Amino acid sequence: MDGDTLYSIGELARRTGLTVKTVRFYSDRGIVAPTDRSPAGYRLYGIDAVARLDLVRTLRELGLGLSTIRQVVDRELSLAEVAAAHAEALAVQIRVLRLRHAVLAAVAERGSTPEETELMHRLAQLSEDERRRLIGEFLDAVFGGLVDAAPAFAGVMRSMTPELPDNPEAEQVQAWVELAELSLDLEFRASVRRLVEEQAAEQARSGTAVPRRDIFAVVRDQAGPALAAGIDPASPRADPFVASFMAHYAQLLGRPDDIELRHRLATRLERVNDPRRERYLQLLAVVNGWTAPESLAPALDWSVQALRVRTPGRTSP
Predict the structure, then answer these.
(1) Are residues 173 and 296 in the same domain?
(2) Model confidence over 202-217: pLDDT tens digits?
(3) Does the pLDDT value for residue 61 go beyond 60?
(4) Which of 102, 106, 179, 243 is an S-S bond match for 173, by CB 3.0 to 4.6 Å?
(5) Are 138 and 71 contained in the same domain?
(6) Do 144 and 253 lie in a common domain?
(7) Residue 27: which domain range?
């Protein structure tokens, strides 16, 4: 068929795969105008109407409104401009859907109350500035006033800061919500603050501005092989492992390895073995896209037991 061929609405519908009602709808709104009329007054359309309707159908499937479609087909707007604006709008919609999915998944998994659900919903919808402010308040409560005395804590603060990406996965949003809830827990804040204060005091007693190796890392490295070897913490076979990390701790504080010092370290290890602290670090890794951290709990449990059986008459406070 040549370019002078005209089509009735029925023929145009057959060629485009649309219904007669849909073609008439677009025609009535001026998006696809008739080229001529038949002697009986019926609308007739040129070959360009086929291409025009194919474009209209594609744009409708992409979610564009009729007013925008009219501007595109009439070349009042370039398709590139419309596509860019629509892609941006869809990105916002996708983010909202991810937030909703994350909250609903958390509610389903945790069996949350209506109040908890409302809190999760509000936390998920925080802006970037609001998220930074919330975490900033938590970190200030934990490290406030201590960074000047122990500059190394500045790096620790940065390592404990969640950075939710611009286009997070659902699991990252869900992790962020739980992490934000945890940061609002006043008891958890106080617990972490106490650990940091104790660590700052121990560093001050060491008499050097250069931070020494973390006692918890030393304990992990010593207890790990003992655990792997199946050594009972109360057994004499555990003595060399205990003596090794106690030697480090005694050197750190400039004190002899005695019952008092072993009791002190056991208490420190019990405090750092707070499940909430480990959960915070696990969630932080998910939000920031880091490798999941190794759990310290088994090594800490083993070490506490090993120390307690070697500190007669002492119990955990």
Answers:
(1) yes
(2) 877 766 544 456 788 8
(3) yes
(4) 102
(5) no
(6) yes
(7) 9-77
Query: Does 246 share its domain with 150?
Result: yes
Question: 23 with 53: CB under 8 angstroms?
Answer: yes
Same domain? For 155 and 292 the reply is: yes
Query: Distance (Å, rounded) from C-alpha 130 to C-alpha 148?
Result: 26
Token pair listed for 127: 């802006």
Find the DSSP H helices in the chain: 9-16, 20-28, 48-61, 66-73, 79-110, 114-124, 128-143, 152-159, 170-183, 186-205, 215-228, 239-253, 259-272, 275-288, 297-308
CA 208, CA 218: separation in Å to the nearest integer? Answer: 19
Say yes or no: 132 and 66 in one domain. no
DSSP state letter for 2: -
Mean pLDDT value across residues 145-169: 85
Q: How far apart (Å, rounded) are the C-alpha atoms in residues 250 and 259?
A: 12
The domain boundary, picked from 77, 95, 113, lies at: 77
- The type of residue at 33 is A
The reply to whether 62 falls in a domain is yes
Q: Structure pTM?
A: 0.66
How do residues 41-52 score in pLDDT, each as one tens digit? 899 998 888 888
CB < 8 Å & 24+ apart, contacts of 190-199: 191/271, 191/274, 191/276, 191/277, 192/142, 192/277, 193/141, 193/142, 194/271, 195/268, 195/271, 195/272, 195/277, 196/142, 196/143, 196/146, 196/153, 197/146, 198/268, 198/271, 199/150
Residue with more model confidence, 3 or 271: 271
Q: What is the DSSP string of 84-139?
A: HHHHHHHHHHHHHHHHHHHHHHHHHHHT--HHHHHHHHHHHT--HHHHHHHHHHHH
Place of tokens 């919808």: 125
Are 183 and 269 in a shared domain?
yes
Which of 56, 77, 98 corresponds to the end of one domain? Answer: 77
Check which CATH number belongs to the domain holding 17 and give it. 1.10.1660.10
